[in-house]
Amino acid sequence: MTTDPATEADEEHHRGRIWRLSDDGRRRLKLGLNPETIRVLTRALDQGILDDTYVHDGTPVVLERISGTILVAAGDEDAPIPVRPFELRPARLAGLIAEQVDAYRVRKIKDREETYEEEVMPSKSVLEAVLARKDWPGLAPLHKVISTPVLRPDGTLLQTPGYDAATGYYLAGRIEYGEIPEEPTAAEVAEAREFMLKRFLRDFPWVSLADRANYLALLATPILRPMTRALSPFGVVDATMPGSGKTILTSCVGLMVGQRVLNWTDSEEELRKSITTVLGDPGGVVVWDNLVEGTVIDSAVLARLVTEHMWADRRLGTNSAFSAENDRLWLATGNNLRTGGDMASRSVWVRLDPDCPHPEERTGFSIPNLDTWILDPANQAVVLRHLLILILDWTRAGAPRAYDVPAMRQFTTWAQTLGGFLRHHEVTGFLDNLNDARELDDDHAEWRAFLLQWNRVYGDRHVGGAELRRSAEPEPGMPDRWDGTFPTTNSGKSLSVKSLGRRLTGQAGRWRGDIVLRCEIDPVTNCKAYWIERAPKPEGSPRLAATSETNPETRKPDEVPLDLGLLSPGFENGRTS
Question: What ranges does the record give for the region Disordered, renumbered to this chain (predicted)?
């Protein structure tokens, strides 16, 4: 007599695992008719019968290595993580069952009591029914695939390749960096600082100490993000000339943590689509590389992106919803870039100025041919290892924060955390160029110029929109009283009174440096009236007084920044010779 397959399967399940291992190590799973096969296969999948299966947002996924991935030949190319999660669908599930499982059904020989095992494959409808389930308590949740070690929320370092139950991360290393000591010695920390500051970053033509400090903060951001859960600002790596080293800086981050390189577009719709696409794949950095010289980065889509923890959109070509955690570092590179709109206050600048006609011809570097040197995974491992040692030395000290850094609205946690990391290693200048960046904000500069001219024309007198609009009309033979600062349409045409009123109302109360536009309803005309206010100058202090920070000639001997000794001998006033 044979035992009913369903009964035997239930008994095996109650004893624990519903599937067994054969002598050669293959999984064996006994199936029955369709209803029982759905129950049995669902249990088996939930018990991990297939290798590298996890659950993400209620959907079973399988991790697979991507074959044919070529080595990165240039810093401005994609550097994908070689292992990616794929949603389990009927066809892929059937293939994995055939590869890893002996799925069989017990059949009875006709007119005899003897039985035999018949290998079977569940039908497509059965596989669809299994995968329709959203509750998979036995599968480990997969949050993210990463390619470099990161700090867990408790401050410990995730560095063992494979799945990490504490975070739901899967570390699929692209480079061999060796075991990182949880408590690095003083000698190891000194060596790491020596390499990072006196060798690797020494020869970049930083405009100021702030640019070097800001870059180090961006470099460490993907590693610290799982611990801080903080939003990070948009990083702009800008230079005065091609060949200054912008792509080397961004690729150093991207090659370690996985990067996607995109082409910049002024179309908000295309920008939104590209963001949704890249967030659907694992990675750590997204770079818009080599923007056209003088590009103004002014995008409502980008401004929303960098200030939201979750990105929601619809899947391309469908009406289904898509959401993903905004866990990337977003960067752009170009020459003489500018920002506009809300992007100015949501960006951190790293500026380079080689101050020579042919930057690519410079010689005498600490690391020759750095653009190709960084493409070697072994060299990427050197940078990563030293960076991790600096981070672990900071966490060993309690991961102190810097609470006196400039306020950055949604990015305050990021600024305080990275500011603390840099201060721990005596790297000065972090975010000191925020005010300088305002000069690179076209929107800010244009409105400030207009308001300053308004102040010259009207002083603090209240003015209505119609009168203001009439004042912009040219008078024959007379110079333009607005000196070209009066707002126009994008095509340069004059604004209507109504359009001008909308723009002015949108700017009311927004300070542009030391000047602000005010607005109220005139009780007599019942129309809006506008006027200018200036911030009072601090008593007893010149408006542009030289300080030891801005003028090296006034700096006392004991005011030398802590880390100037780690810079190249040619570093003078924030610029390499």
Answer: 470-490, 538-577
Q: Is 0.70 topped by the overall pTM?
A: yes
Per-residue CA distances from 119 to 24, 111, 129, 214, 435 (Å): 17, 21, 20, 61, 71
Q: What is the mean pLDDT of residues 17-40?
A: 89
The reported pLDDT for the residue numbered 67 is 76
29 three-class SS: strand
Backbone angles phi, psi at 66, to 5 degrees: -90, 120
Is 463 in contact with 451 (CB distance < 8 Å)? no
CA 511 to chain centroid: 29
- The pLDDT value recorded for residue 14 is 42
Could you give the domains of the chain?
A: 19-142 (no CATH), 186-437 (3.40.50.300), 442-534 (no CATH)
- Count Cα atoms within 13 angstroms, Cβ side, for 335: 10
Under 8 Å between Cβ of 292 and 275: no
CA distances from 141 to 56, 394, 436 (A): 6, 30, 45
What's the rounded Cα separation, in Å, for the pair 427 and 197? Answer: 9
* DSSP SS3 for 299: coil
What CA–CA distances, in Å, run from 501 to 277, 474, 497, 504?
39, 20, 6, 5
| 3-state secondary structure at position 396 | helix
Among 35, 48, 43, 38, smallest CA distance to 13 is for: 43
409 vs 300, residue with greater confidence: 300
Q: pLDDT of 542-557, one tens digit each?
A: 433 333 333 333 333 3
Dihedral sign (CA 75, 78, 82, 83): positive
Buried b (16+ CB within 10 A) or exposed e, 340-356: bbbbbbbbbbbbbbbee
Report the candidate in 236, 246, 227 with the shortest Cα–Cα distance to residue 418. Answer: 227
Q: Give the pLDDT score at 501.
A: 87
Residue 346's pLDDT is: 92
pLDDT at 566 over 80: no
- What pLDDT sits at residue 96? 95
DSSP label at 196? I
Task: Locate 140 and state its tokens.
Answer: 């480990």
Mean pLDDT score, 281-306 = 92
For residues 106 and 116, give the distance between their C-alpha atoms in angstroms, rounded to a whole number. 6
Average pLDDT for 74-93: 88
Give me the pLDDT at residue 554, please. 37
CB 337 within 8 A of CB 350: no
CB 161 within 8 A of CB 75: no
Strands (DSSP E) along 419-485, which ranges?
463-464
Residue 304: partners with Cβ closer than 8 Å, 6 or more residues away: none
Assess contact for 195 and 566: CB atoms under 8 A: no
Query: Residue 562 pLDDT > 70, yes or no?
Result: no
- Number of residues that this document lists for the chain: 577
